[in-house]
Amino acid sequence: MQYEKILAAIKKYDTIIIHRHVRPDPDAYGSQVGLAETIRNSYPDKQVYAVGESVHSLAWLTTDMQEVSDDVYAHALVIVTDTADTPRVDDQRFSKGEMLIKIDHHPNDDAYGDVQLVLPDISSTSEVLIDLINGSNGQLKMNAAAARLFYAGIVGDTGRFLYNNTTAHTLMDVAQLYGFDFDPSVVNQQMNEVTMGQAKLQAFAMSDLQVTANGAGYYVIHQSDLKRLGVAPDEYQVAVGTGGRLAEVRAWAMFTEQPEGNYRVSLRSKELPIEPIAKNHNGGGHELASGAKAADEAEIKQIVNELDALLAGARK
């Protein structure tokens, strides 16, 4: 039913504007621009825009962001991909369209939009969109550009197929993408590359890592560290996975100081759900990968204690 509503809306509207979340990752870009490429390929006469701030660290993936004036929204279909809640939508004009569709794979705690296609058990929004395309009875036609973007989105959100959100169905979709004219190995290499500053940041994170007796790892990155190491504001997320490489670490948190003085919190776990902790601190996400906020060092300590208590309780 949701497929039919979305396909009917795409067919109906001549102007379609696609948004995604702020601070995009490969799945945000992949789902947003991959969908835009697919609609353009399927309906060449439609005006399709992908909007939002460009991120330098992902310029190799796409630079396809367009400027859209306010009046364009008046009679437009707006689609928001890979964005769980409205405060995180890049460009808050998303609500000014005539119709709004949400397509996502995060828990649907903020059920915005006239139509919602939200599948939390799917690896990525890129995978959700591949299934939408496959279920469109030929109304949507993927091309190589879209396939490359969707592939990057799936690889990014599965941690290169390391995470438990990788399923047989995920790999079937990936096998389908391999049939298009792009080189997956080039995408893999580009996703694996880091700058010298990012490499130094990963080394710093490992050296600063603290581990509790129950296996909770944590490290704090300050603005002064980013400046000293030469890491751009949109590049520090490369250090999120660092703590999980240690066998002794069962769950971990990276606290990154923001220019305003508060901290962005990246929570990860190898097996136990950490999303409830994120929700306790103005955040959310997936069971094993969530984000939150910490106002100060006192809240950092509180989050570490909650993480440690979760792990301690699981050992009883």
From TrEMBL:
Pfam families: DHH, DHHA1. It comes from Lacticaseibacillus pabuli. This is Bifunctional oligoribonuclease/PAP phosphatase NrnA. It comes from the Bacteria. Residues 16-154 form the DDH domain. InterPro entries: DDH_dom, DHH_sf, DHHA1_dom, Oligoribo/pAp-PDE_c-di-AMP_PDE. Residues 230-312 form the DHHA1 domain.
